[in-house]
Here is the input.
Amino acid sequence: MSRQARRDTQVELQVRRRLHAAGHRYRVDYRPDRSIRCRGDIVFTRRKVVVFIDGCFWHGCPLHATQPKNNADWWRGKLASNVERDRRHSDALRDLGWQVLRFWEHEPPAAIFERIVAVVQGVENDS
Here is the structure.
């Protein structure tokens, strides 16, 4: 597990390049609120938008998640707790006024970029 990239995955990098080229500025691998122990992949602090790009295996993608056969009980619990933790963190951030966007690593970076821009600009226009 220590070899698994926590940040700077290919999809993250592609989305971040597009955002930066479009003039958007953000924080990377940033803790949006001190009261919650989670780090957003891309965080727009002024607009209170946090983006997570979740890996299919680790976060239980309904299309691509697999269950390891070795030590299956431990893995089942571990992966289920990851999904539950993600839900708790999203709910807590929303309660604090953050807009939470979650994407899967298999989604096209262009589509992720477009959705993020639509939300960030929508939040920006509401101000």
The mean pLDDT is 91.
